[in-house]
Amino acid sequence: MFHFADSESSTEGGTPPDRNDLPIVEVAEPHRVLYQLIYHCYQDPVNHTTIHDVTELAPVFEAADKYEMPRVITSLKATLEHFEKDHPLPVFALACRFGPEDLARSSALKWRARLHASYVDSPKAPHGFWKDMTVASSFVPEMNGMCAGVFYRLAEYLRTGVERPFSKPTSSCKLSDSEVPRPTVTFQMTQYPDADIRIQSYHSQATFFHVHKIILSTSSPVLMQKIDELSESSSEDLPTLSLPEHDNILQIILASCYSSMLADMPSFELADLPELGRAAQHYRLINLVNLCRQSMTAHIIADPLKAYLIAADCGWKAEAREAAVRLAQRAKEGRYSPYLELVDTSIYFPLLKFCHEYRRVIFQVTGGCKGRTPEEMWAAAEWICDEMPGDAGNLAWAFAMYLMESGHRNKTWSELRTMRDDLISKLAQIQLEI
């Protein structure tokens, strides 16, 4: 017998009375999801489907995947096809996550045709912004859990109409061995002869780090709890605590607990930051989190897209926004990065939405530029930003200068300054929803 997470509502489907002789399996899924999961184990969904709302499909798919039920997933795919005509985007997302690719392709085709009818072919389509708008309107909740690389390929298809596989990157877009974010930091952890505990990684049980319980416990409440639990179960004079981080990351984690070692910490590369940043936050090591965020700042100029993806994934909103602004200023958020294959669409889509709104506000405040397309203006703006790198104020001033030269020669310097200040204020109010 299954015990549902919301068992008080478990009357659907004729639930039999409780029987004490049946084993009880505790599950986290709500009744409706588990009911559909079990139903698809027994029924032919093509002829007996009970799912009439596309929003019900994602949690059932996820539960079937979680419990490794391929027969149920196959049944759900058959049900999924019934929703393609009216709900192409949710079907696309689920088809990319669980298959088949053919259904994802046909759903994308239907969605692009609908967008062209709404934006491109409409006489009311906002000039120059339809490509941004097609992407901005192409996110649905079913895409949470979908790889950001898939959304990138959808966005490219919506812009260009060039078909290619959605679910997996093409050979030219795959992560090479050199691009897979593996920690590169090298730091020699001091070994203490008077240590009362040793730490090892799950991944390399031949290496031990000899440290002190009191230092680790006072630095991290998470480590303190693990040490307390270990002390209760171990009678060894020098107990061993195993942690999931790799050796080179584990050294940094442990060294950061010793204030004398903080000054010797190296500057971290981008490849270090995903694992190191998440570990520092997991163990609540505030000083190490701050060091990671300081290292991130240096990478934003060199590779803002990759920096954004890592910062957003780690929940570092200030750094993510700084990278997003830099991308919006140069209209480069649509470029490909192999890191897109490693993060969720819920991380990537807010960037695209932010950059779209950033440009919309600029055109709203400045009134655009007669005789120039948005693409031409952004090409010029990119050049200006490269000549005048800096914050939103420089960008706003650059636009004011450009507009005066190419379409607003009748404005005074005072009017241009007012335009610039208004632009700075409005740009600062744009939210990055991560």
Taken in chain order, the helices and strands follow as EEHHHHHHHHEEHHEHHHHHHHHHH
Name the structural class. mainly alpha
Helix content range: 55-70%
How many DSSP helices? 20
Report the strand count. 5
Rounded mean pLDDT is 78
The total tally of domains equals 3
Strand share of the residues? Answer: under 5%
Strand order in the sheet with the most strands: 4-3-5
What does the model show?
- It contains 20 helices and five strands.
- Residues 7-11 and 175-186 have low confidence and may be disordered.
- It folds into three domains: 2-160, no CATH class; 197-294, Potassium Channel Kv1.1, Chain A (2-Layer Sandwich), CATH 3.30.710.10; 303-428, no CATH class.
- The longest helix is centred in the last third of the chain and has 22 residues, at 345-366.
- The radius of gyration is 27 Å and the shape is flat.
- It is mainly α.
- Strands 4-3-5 form a three-stranded mixed beta sheet. Strands 1-2 form a two-stranded parallel ribbon.
- Helices cover 55% and strands 5% of the residues.
Map the helices and strands.
Elements: E1 2-3, E2 25-26, H1 31-42, H2 45-48, H3 57-66, H4 70-80, H5 88-98, H6 101-120, H7 130-136, H8 148-160, E3 197-201, E4 204-211, H9 213-219, H10 221-233, E5 240-243, H11 247-255, H12 259-262, H13 273-282, H14 286-302, H15 304-314, H16 317-330, H17 345-366, H18 374-387, H19 392-406, H20 413-428
Parallel strand pairs: 1-2, 3-5
Antiparallel strand pairs: 3-4
Helix pairs in contact: 1-3, 1-4, 3-4, 5-6, 7-17, 8-17, 9-10, 13-14, 13-15, 14-15, 14-16, 15-16, 16-17, 17-20, 18-19, 19-20
Protein name: BTB domain-containing protein
Organism: Cerrena zonata
Pfam families: BTB
